[in-house]
Design goal:
Layout (H helix, E strand, L loop, with lengths): L2 E5 L6 H9 L3 E6 L1 H7 L5 E4 L5 H15 L3 E4 L2 H14 L6 H7 L2 H10 L7 E4 L6 H5 L4 E4 L10 E3 L2 H11 L5 E5 L5 E9 L2 E12 L7 E6 L4 H18 L4 E10 L2 E8 L7 H9 L3 H10 L4 H5 L5 E5 L6 E7 L1 H5 L4 E6 L6 E2 L10 E7 L2 H14 L1 E5 L3
Parallel strand pairs: 1-2, 1-4, 2-3
Antiparallel strand pairs: 5-8, 6-7, 6-8, 9-10, 9-12, 10-11, 11-14, 12-13, 14-18, 15-17, 15-19, 16-18
Helix pairs in contact: 1-11, 3-4
The protein binds adenosine-5'-triphosphate (ATP) and magnesium ion (MG).
Length: about 400
């Protein structure tokens, strides 16, 4: 029975746990005691982590591996990526490589590595204090300001002009080290790659729809719909990024914009994407992507991945609501009964306050749909948006 060490299961990790069990793997879970308690019956061993700092995840994962000798180690979230990569390295297990994990954790390191490899990306500068980058930014406005190691779009801000720059400096000068980039324009995509020993087994291009500036929070992901030119550019860039990172084994999630001059890298992560992209890509390829990732981590064969073809289209949607107090949620049951609707989740109830969507966690609902072709998918997307309505009233 293969042994899988899961470093942090988080809120999205259940499908991985189920996939591991289906493969009859024994699962050891490194988790906080409170979260582990909820999953105690589903796992074979629990290794508690003393806190949620990256160093503490590493301490717990390395300790667990020393005692339990797993055949594979897998991290799902950002704070656990380094812990799992360190553990894989020490124990000779499949993994993205320590170098790829380190680079994945830091957007400024990504810029350095991609610049050296000659890959297309925005102009950038790293600054210890936002105000110190004023001259650099003035020549390149609009720019984007972002933390080096964050996710969920938190702290990512488009600065369109000089007045907005002064405002941003006023608010963020004391924030410490930041990355400032030229803002590139063009539609945005992601590329999901399943990789074994540096070879891409499956690459997928997803169309990303973001909400309004300045926060760019994702409101939809469409799989199986991208135009051929975008697919070709994404597949090529994905392979270049895998090589530049020194990525060995696992899943890569790359984000890029397709500008008038070709693709420009936004960022990359050597871990599972969020936003139900795993489910959306799985639906399109008739694959359990979670199982594929577990198989890669355990060094098991992945014949279904190698055979996979694009069969249909899918979309992961995040309906929004006007800021205010929720009066009613309409259309949930109606949607659930419709063909092609794979999942509907609404995270707010009447009486709850809904704020403006500044980061992914602010989004009040999530829906997953599938369709035979891009045209039918667009109809399904419009249908979801017209049916699921979160009615709010202003908070006075
Ligand atoms: N240089 C840039 N030019 C244009 N748009 C950008 C740039 N940098 C970031 N963005 C936009 O901001 C979004 C969030 O930025 P980024 O991916 O770097 O942050 P994040 O916190 O990791 O976000 P998430 O976890 O939501 O992917 C991007 O998806 C993109 O839409
Ligand atoms: Mg991103």
């Amino acid at each position: 029975m293969p042994k899988l060490l899961l470093v942090g299961v988080g809120e999205l990790g259940l499908p991985y746990l189920i996939a591991a069990k289906r493969l009859q793997a024994s699962v050891g879970l490194v988790e906080t005691p409170s979260r582990a308690a909820l999953l105690r019956d589903l796992v074979d061993e629990v290794f508690p982590v003393a806190g949620t700092a990256e160093e503490q995840w590493s301490e717990a994962a390395l300790g667990a591996a020393a005692r339990w000798s797993p055949d594979g180690v897998l991290a799902l979230g950002e704070p656990q990526v380094l812990a799992a990569a360190l553990t894989a390295e020490r124990h000779g297990l499949p993994g993205p490589s320590l170098g790829a994990a380190v680079v994945s954790r830091n957007k400024a390191l990504q810029r350095a590595v991609f610049a050296a490899a000659g890959l297309p990306q925005p102009a950038f500068t790293v600054t210890e204090r936002l105000g110190a980058a004023a001259d650099w930014a003035a020549e390149r406005l609009p720019v984007v300001v972002k933390p080096l190691s964050s996710s969920g779009s938190s702290g990512v801000e488009l600065v369109p002009d000089g007045a907005a720059w002064a405002d941003a400096v006023g608010r963020r000068d004391g924030e410490g080290r930041l990355l400032v980039e030229s803002a590139v324009t063009g539609p945005e995509f992601s590329w999901e790659g399943l990789v074994r020993d540096g070879r891409v087994l499956l690459g997928n291009v997803t169309e990303k729809e973001t909400g309004p500036a300045p926060y760019f929070v994702e409101v939809a992901h469409r799989v199986g719909t991208a135009a051929p030119a975008a697919v070709t550019a994404g597949q090529h860039l994905g392979r270049q990024v895998v090589e530049a990172l020194g990525m060995r084994t696992g899943i890569v999630h790359l984000e890029f914009r397709l500008t008038a001059d070709g693709p420009a890298i936004i960022e990359v992560a050597v871990r599972t994407p969020g936003d139900s992209i795993m489910d959306a890509v799985g639906l399109v390829h008739g694959l359990d992507l979670y199982e594929a990732v577990v198989r890669l981590a355990l060094g098991l064969p992945t014949p279904a991945v190698e055979r996979a073809r694009q069969l249909r289209c899918s979309a992961s949607l995040f309906p929004t609501a006007a800021p205010g107090r929720v009066v009613a949620v309409h259309g949930t049951a109606d949607l659930r009964g419709r063909p092609g609707v794979a999942r509907v989740h609404v995270g707010v109830r009447p009486g709850d306050a809904v704020g403006p969507v500044r980061c992914s966690a602010d989004r009040p609902a999530a829906v997953l749909v599938e369709a035979a072709d891009p045209e039918s998918l667009e109809k399904a997307v419009a249908d979801v948006r017209a049916t699921l309505l979160i009615e709010t009233e202003p908070i006075l």
